[in-house]
Write a structure and sequence with these properties.
268 residues; mainly alpha
Length: 268
C-alpha cells in the first residue's frame, strides 16, 4: 500500500481543527491504491453478481410453491449481490487506520493534527461520505441490472412500499460495517489482526449466537442486513429494518468509541 503524506499546511498546533483534518484524510484516502482498487472491483463484482442472481432467481420463480411466490422479494434477492461489499468495505475501513501504523505515516499525521479525536473523526467522515455515495449507487445499480434479466418473474418498482428504503438502508448498513472495520483498525492497529477480528464478528459470531436461546443469532451483522435491512418483506422472528440498522449502528459506535479511546491513550 502506498503512503500519501499529510497535506495540511503548517499552523500553530492550537489552531488545527476538524476541517483541516478532513481535507488531509480526503487526500490520503483517495490516494491509497487499496481505495482505488476497491472502488473499481466492488461495483464490477456487484453488478456481475446481480445479473447472475437475477437470471437464476427469475428462472426459478415458476417452480416455487404458492407460499414461496407469496414471499417473493426480488429486491432482497438482488441486494445479495452486494456480498463483495460485506468484506471489501470493512477491510477498506481497517486499512484506512492500520496502514498508517504499518507505513509509519501515523507520526506525520499526528504531527500535523495533534488532536487525535479530530484525526479519527476525520477518517470516519471521509470514509462514510465516499462509501455511502458508492454503496447507494451500487444498491440501485444491482436492483436495475438484476431485474433486467429476471424474465417473466414479478419485478419490484421504486414506487412500491419498502423498496427505496431497502436500497438506501442496505447502502447505509454497508457503511456502518466499514466504520466498524475502521474502529477495529484503531483498536488493533495491525491489518491482519483487525481483518481477522472483523471476520470473527461478522462470520463466526452469528453461528455462536444461534446456539443461544432467544434467537440471538439474528443479531449477527450479516443476518441483520440480509433478513431485515435489505428485506422488503421481513420474515417473522427477525428485527424490523430500522431496528436492524440501529443494531449495526451500535456495532459501529462501540468499535469507534473503543478505538478512539485507545487511540487517545496509547503511544503512536
Amino acid at each position: 500500500m502506498s503512503a500519501v503524506p499529510a497535506t495540511i499546511p503548517r499552523r500553530s498546533a492550537g489552531r488545527y481543527g476538524l476541517p483541516e483534518a478532513v481535507r488531509s484524510e480526503w487526500t490520503k484516502f483517495l490516494g491509497l491504491r487499496s481505495t482505488r482498487w476497491t472502488l473499481l472491483a466492488f461495483p464490477l463484482a456487484a453488478i456481475g453478481f446481480a445479473i447472475l442472481i437475477g437470471s437464476l432467481t427469475g428462472s426459478h420463480y415458476a417452480h416455487l410453491s404458492a407460499a414461496g411466490k407469496a414471499e417473493w422479494d426480488p429486491t432482497n434477492n438482488l441486494l445479495a449481490a452486494l456480498i463483495p461489499g460485506y468484506i471489501a468495505l470493512p477491510v477498506l475501513g481497517v486499512l484506512m487506520m492500520s496502514s498508517e501504523y504499518s507505513s509509519g505515516l501515523i507520526r506525520s499525521t499526528l504531527a500535523a493534527v495533534p488532536r487525535r479525536p479530530s484525526v479519527l473523526a476525520a477518517k470516519a467522515i471521509v470514509f462514510a461520505a465516499v462509501a455511502f455515495a458508492v454503496c447507494v449507487a451500487m444498491s440501485f445499480a444491482v436492483f436495475f441490472a438484476g431485474q433486467s434479466v429476471m424474465g417473466s418473474a414479478p419485478r419490484a418498482t421504486l414506487g412500491q412500499p419498502g423498496v427505496v428504503r431497502a436500497l438506501v438502508l442496505s447502502a447505509g448498513f454497508l457503511v456502518l460495517m466499514g466504520l466498524f472495520g475502521l474502529g477495529l483498525g484503531a483498536i488493533l492497529r495491525r491489518s491482519a489482526a483487525a481483518v481477522a477480528a472483523y471476520a470473527g464478528v461478522a462470520l463466526v459470531l452469528p453461528f455462536i449466537l444461534q446456539g443461544l436461546p432467544g434467537r440471538a443469532g439474528r443479531f449477527g451483522p450479516l443476518l441483520l442486513l440480509g433478513n431485515s435491512a435489505a428485506a422488503v418483506k421481513v420474515q417473522p422472528g427477525f428485527l424490523s429494518p430500522w431496528a436492524a440498522f440501529g443494531v449495526m449502528a451500535i456495532y459501529a459506535v462501540v468499535g469507534l468509541a473503543v478505538g478512539g479511546f485507545l487511540f487517545q491513550t496509547r503511544d503512536s
